[in-house]
User: Fold this.
Amino acid sequence: MPRVKYATVLRILVIFGLFCVWVQILLSASENGLDRDGEELMNANETSEQVLALVPQELHKYLTVHPRNVSGNATDRVGPKNTSDILRMIEKYNDEQTIYNEDIYGPVQNDTIIIAIQVHTRLTYLRHLIVSLAQARDIDKTLLVFSHDYYDEEINSLVRSIDFTKVMQIFYPYSIQTHPDEFPGLDPNDCPRDAKIDYAKIIKCNNALHPDVHGHYREAKYTQTKHHWWWKANRIFNQLQCTSGHGGMVVFLEEDHYVAEDFIHMLNLLKNTADRSCPQCEILCLGTYLKTYQYHTTSDKVEITPWHSSMHNMGFAFNRTVWNNIMELQSQFCAYDDYNWDYSLLHLSQNRMRQNKFKVMLCKGPRVFHIGECGFHHKKSNCNASTVISKVQKLLQNAKRFMYPSRVTATVTNGGAKHNKRLVKGNGGWGDARDQELCTNMTKIGRQPRKFNYKNGMINSQTL
Assistant:
């Protein structure tokens, strides 16, 4: 090809490439706007009188929305605006490891039930989760650990107002909020999600050589959730001073969950049953995604079955022994090309060399519910948190006489062909070598207090 024609073709390719990048940026901004609008709509919802009627008067304080300046951006809340200030606050609170209300309810014991709650920005759901926790029997014997990937003084104030049990806050230090223009956030030179690898090489974007299994490049808002879950679990089991000798159960919840008043009773019942007659049951699960529930026949029924990510990831619990088993396969968790933490755990379960797949003991009558209809994965324009919350409240009110069973009856199943199907490849979104390296390095930081910094593809930690 003559040199002139070759140069012309090259210029056309470059111009076309730049146009594609511009379109991708516009689409990304539009999607982010939709996400923010959905969260703002949900957070602006007032709690309906119907919902309040089923909440004890003394707990209304957790549902009170204090006046504030509402902008079009759901994540533009009260608090430090400067990234450096936010990082300093995160480092301060993570180093202090303060346990609120410890003077009232006593120190954390090695068998204390720890309830780990992953929090983003959906404040309305978080308020109702707290209300449901406040009504649970024996909640005063637990430790609530709220793990945040967004620093927000309004959320912090709500969490620190809890007075019914011990509370700790931990803050994920590698968030999009604290790294808005660099990895693990969105670096301006990162490859567009749908760019083809040949084009990515031409424009020399950061991760050009590392698309995922489906040919797409990373999206920070999705990779953050897996990072946060992994960091949170490692923080609780391996880094907090108060858990150095902890051998009890850790229950994993999210901000848009809602618990029944006997969920701790059921957790203890499941644990005692597993200890006595099902030593292979490594995971206990209090929630299901069934659409209908018959508590008069299922309240005291449990199922023993292979653990599956999409069925048994809500209100599930395990102890340090299980975490240590997971840690033995941490390289597989971090290398597996799936942005979902639960599917990554399923991959581990299906690839344990010396052991069978994780077994779960599951409540047939659920004690944990998903109330999230708006926000991260849902962009309904007419979403209203109160509608779903009201349904769950009424369901639990009608089931009240069937709660607190004295024993449970177990049925063993194989989970069915669908749930035992071996994962061939992940859902993608985790092909970037930087994500895999960040994930791996998180587990290398020990229990002693450290300063955290993420630069140039490495976590740098310095003992204080």
